[in-house]
Amino acid sequence: MTVNTIAIDFGAAVSSTITNLTLKDEATGAVLGSVVTTPSTSNSYAVNLDIPSSSTKTIDIYGNVLSSANLGTLQASVDYTTGGTGDTTGTAAQLGTSSSNNVALQTITLGSGSLTVTRGAGDPVSNNILAGASQVQVGEFNFAAQNSAYTVQNLAILIPSGAATSVTNVTLSYKDVNGATQTVTQSLALPSTSQGYATATFTGLTMYVPTNDSANLDVFVGTPTIASGATSGAAINVTLDNGNGTNLFRAVNSAGSPLSMFNGTNVNVASNGTFYVRKSIPTFAMVNTGNTVPSTGSVLYKFTVSADAAGAIEWTKLTFNVATSAATGGSTTLTGLYLTDDSTGVSLLNTNVNPQGVTGSQTATIDLSKNTTLANYAQVGAGATKTYDLY
To answer: First-to-last CA distance in the chain?
Structure first.
């Protein structure tokens, strides 16, 4: 059979909803008939489509949805006048004799696209970071798209002005439409005296957020050394600027329409963690004592303190969680806690700590600042490790 007419109907006028109504042969992609630029409730296509005996053809219907289209549903039907002529018999045939023979197609729901941004599940928690380190992750933001895919093109990352000189650059990592990871790095524009933030502005990004799905944006910073301008104790956290309708933020949907503000409100999204710049960072580790029964003169707890190679570590106060228990009818009193340098066996305290121990849990603090004749701090050299014993 050769189909010579395909008629597509809509329940209501669609000229304000779609344009360029087009039929295509799914197998070949060939356009059938003429494109209807401004569709109406009834649209007829003159075609010459041969369908061999006992076979089928799938026809796809395309249209451009206008950005001004009203929200709601859109449904097309194949009109009963659709028909053709038998290749052997020459007999004309069509779907039916009245509109009751129309074939309704799927219902399409039209909705406005939206893009929301929240902290990502992998947003890092607060921590110390080493001055001079590069590519330290300080934030993760999750972009979620509804009703349309989005490509994020422009965005700005804000750093508190007090930490601006402790950040060398900001790096973003994201995936593009092909799933390939992209990274891009920008320096900070230092704030004026009236601004609370320094800004790293990124343009020309290709971050892809799939329809009704989400994508993550990871944020990293580099830090200078203390000698190069970093401030020990500087607090770094990152905020994604909402844009407030400016070009600081820009994303385009699948129709190419731009969005200059996410979440629909002028509210920035900040990462959860705060990262404190340090010249050197201590690392603590427990060491197995081999003792299973506590007694006077036996080590209760052994641990090491290691200093980063960037600088020495000095400490003054350590607090230990202590739990005691006793047999029924008995009592336990923990007294005379003290800490020694494992290499010398010498106590670091003038006076032993008496935590007034009773059955249960409590804390005990070793505070060198209270020493009267011994040192008020202990030092671990750069790149070195010291072992301490709690008795």
So the answer is: 97
